[in-house]
Amino acid sequence: MDRPLTQNIKADRPFATLSDYLKTGGYQGLAHAINNLQPKEVQQWVRDAGLRGRGGAGFNTGLKWSLVPMPEPNDADRNPTHYLVVNGDEMEPGTFKDRLLLEKDPHQLLEGIAIAAYAIQAQTAYIFLRGEYHLAAERLTHALEEARTQGYVGEHLLHSDFSLQIHLHTSAGRYICGEESALLNALEGKRATPRPKPPFAVVSGLWGKPTVVNNVETLCNVPHILHYGVEWYRSLGRGEDKGTKLFGASGRVKRPGLWELPMGTPIREILEDHAGGMQDGYKMRGFLPGGASTDFLLPEHLDVPMEYDAVAKAGSRMGTGTIIVLDDQTCPVQMVLNLEQFFAQESCGWCTPCRDGLPWTVTLLKDIIEGRGRLEDLDTLAGLTRMLGPGNTFCALAPGAMEPLQSALKYFRADFERYICCGNTILESG
User: Fold this and answer.
1) Are the C-beta atoms of 56 and 319 separated by less than 8 Å?
2) Which of 132, 217, 221, 353 sits at 20 to 30 Å (Cα–Cα) from 417?
3) Closest CA to 157 of 127, 200, 121
4) pTM of this prediction?
5) Which domains are assigned to the chain?
6) 407, 415, 411, 430: which is closest to 282 by C-alpha?
7) Tens-place pLDDT, residues 249-263
């Protein structure tokens, strides 16, 4: 691969300055887009490259851009207000990919923003950043100053007719702000609650104007597509999905971390070759393949390639691509309780299934662990996974919270039953 997204910057190196970035071909993709392509052509390049959203949903990025109403040459209003918003509110437990990109290579994101903004003709962009990412905010601010000084942000980018202002907004901090429409409400200064759909943000988003919301990692792919070409980018994938992806691993592996690898890399390769396998004295019982809001998979799924459709076929979601490993000395019931407590705390309370269902789930799990559980509680929990599932809530928070629970009931039911049959007993699973 000619130029990896993370540029192989060592952990002890501060970060890539504008000078560093330019030496490795930085802002060449932006120059090509503005000087040689019309906005709709840029959309088509990204669509043809097969770039799918890296925030978890996996929607084709170029297709998403193409849904923004674009002015025609004979329109009276040739410069309608469009917005681009960057979702940097990375609060999914077990996910830390965007933080590394923001801290180590901020200009890569800024170039991706500029290209995306040109593609949808947005003259204003906002970076919505997780409030706890202080170092990322500091380095983004520095990079924005450098970019403005050199004409990569501001009026008449690269001496063209296109202008772009980028604003950094640090969030007050709630998990729900990672949901697209709740993020837009928060950015407008309102309560961060999801909006009914339709209308969708690409038609009526920020302040009622057409808005595209893209994840940090998604936009970091864009400069390379425009610089090196569609076929080059497509050739990087090892299967159906194209390009590369940041894959991570946490839990009791020998080398927890983050690696840029081709889409379609088998899970076994990520965990054994890059994460070093399980720590001495531990065995794997299962793993969440894409962050906290995905279904458990088992060791028998290790050869599944990390691709959206392949992981879905195995019974989970690729999500953010950051794997959380469950070892044989960690109780899956307590692990699920920990996750459900987080999701219950972070519910915005806007819809009844999420507001009331998640605390009920936590209460039942606590009763089971503390020796007050009944076997019928497992049926109640299974029912909650359906009642809080897709289509029953305003957004995906509660359905995502149900994924680790429903899969734990499927794969680790004996652990739940052991608590109920044995009373208040601390168990070592295995």
Assistant:
1) yes
2) 353
3) 121
4) 0.91
5) 18-235 (3.40.50.11540), 244-325 (3.10.20.600), 332-422 (1.20.1440.230)
6) 430
7) 999 999 999 999 999
